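Researcher: Next sequence.
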Amino acid sequence: MKNKNYYIIAAAIIIAALIMGGFFYQAVNNKSTIKVVGIAKKSFTSDTVKWSLTLSSEVGKNELEQGYRSMKTKLNKFKAEIKAEGIATEQFNIQPITVSKQYNYITKNGNSQRVFTGYELKQYLFLVSKDIDQIENLVLNPLQMYQKDIIIDNSNLQYFYSQIDDLKKEIIANATVNAEERAARMLENTDLKVNKVLAMNSGVFQITEPFSTNTSSMGIYNTSSKNKEISVTAHVTFSIK
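Model: Next structure:
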C-alpha cells in the first residue's frame, strides 16, 4: 500500500514539474519576442483621369430618326473638341444609344391621362487620359461645350495613379521600418535589443483624400480626389536579444 502511494506521489510530482516547466518555457519564450504595429503614410498626385459622361437629346414623337442623327452629330462634335484640345486618350469607350419614351400627364374631365410626347436618347461614354489639366478645363467650364450644342449629363471624373503597385510596396517597407524603430524605442531603457523579424502581416491600404479620417476594414480607394494620401500598417513580431 505504501509503495502504491509512493508511485502516485512520484507521478504527481513529475506531472507538476512538466506543467511548471511548460509555463516557464512559455514565459521565457514570450520574453524573447516583441510585437509592434508600424505605420507609413505618403501623399501623391494622380497621373490618370477617367471622364465618364452621357450625351443626350430629346425629340418629338415623330422625330426619332432626327434624334439619332442629332446624337451622331453631338458625338462627332465631342470627339472633335477632344482632339482640338490636344487630349490624348488611352481608352475611348462608347456605348450604344438608349431610347426611352417620354410622357406628360394631363387631367381631362377629372381623369388623369398619360400622353406620349416624344423620345429621350442617351449615350454613355468614357475616356481615360493622362492629360488631366485639359480635361478638367473642359469639365469645369461646361459653357465651352454648351456653345457648340454639346449637352453633357452626369459628367464625372475619377482619378488614378498608374504606379500604385510600386507605391504600395514602398510604403509597406516604410511601415516595417517604422515598426522596428518603435520596437527599439520601447526597449531603449532596457538591456534588450531588437534582433530579427519573426513574422509580419500588413494591414489593408487606405487611399483617401488628404487629411481624411476615413478608414475601412476592407480598405479604401478614393477616386474623387486628384491629390491623395496612402497609408498602411505593418504588424511585426521581432525576436529580441
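Model: Confidence is low (pLDDT under 50) at residues 17-28. The chain has five helices and ten strands.
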